[in-house]
Amino acid sequence: MVAIIDYDAGNIRSVEKAIISLGYEAVVTRDADTILGADHVILPGVGAFGDAMGKLSDYGLTDVIHAVADRGIPFLGICLGLQLMFESSEEAPGIEGLGLFKGSILRIPDKEDLKIPHIGWNSLRYPVLGRLFAGIPEGSYVYFVHSYYLHAQDKEIVKAVTEYGVEIHASVEKGNLFACQFHPEKSSDVGMKILQNFMEI
Q1: Within 13 A of 155's CA, how many CA atoms are on the CB side?
Q2: Cα(180)–Cα(42) distance, rounded to whole angstroms?
Q3: Which bin fits 13, alpha (ψ -120 to 50), beta or left (φ > 0)?
């Protein structure tokens, strides 16, 4: 069973539908026992960093997420979920993230030829092949929707990057923790393969 963490963020139902379409049971929940009893846990989301951290705190989910990490349950952050796994974001100065990884979330710099938010398909490059990308050729395209991007402190965890004015750390992995800035649930066959790879961990 896959627990999809419900903290009133956008895009949660599309992740649920994607997991179900792969043939797995998915439960959208904020119940601690359900989350800690799951085989896999996903933190999706579209929204603002500060509001999201407030909701996670209000619902008592920050401790639950840290317990998931400590217990070795495979955990995947998607889009805002990736950003929340880090220490801080320029979007919400002074608000601490979950701190599962070291690094910060920065605003994509303004450039004349770039629209922000970044919405669209970009290809991936693999500094080191991660488990999420097994069987997926380098250069494959995935779908992004974001105004802020990850700059991970530890480059060893970065498994996929893309370019949009700056180099964007598009996916990270360490132990049982995984995260994607892009939306695998909206990235056609490539995205479904990424989710399938996660489910097989």
Answers
A1: 3
A2: 11
A3: alpha
The owner of tokens 């990308």 is 133
Cα–Cα–Cα angle for 183, 158, 191, nearest 5°? 25
What CATH number does residue 30 fall under? 3.40.50.880
Residue 49 CA to chain centroid, in angstroms? 13
User: Rounded to the nearest 5°, which phi and psi values hold at 195?
Assistant: -65, -40
Residues 6+ apart with CB under 8 A from 174: 101, 154, 156, 157
Domain that holds residue 149: 2-199
Checking if the pLDDT of 11 tops 90, the result is: no
Give dist(CA 92, CA 76) in Å, integer: 22
Active-site residue set: 79, 183, 185
For residue range 12-23, list pLDDT tens digits in order: 999 999 999 999
Q: List C-alpha distances in Å: 37 to 29, 116, 136, 173.
A: 12, 39, 30, 22
Confidence grade of residue 113 (pLDDT, cut at 50, 70, 90):
confident
Whether 2 and 34 have beta carbons less than 8 Å apart is answered as: no
Domain count, the chain: 1
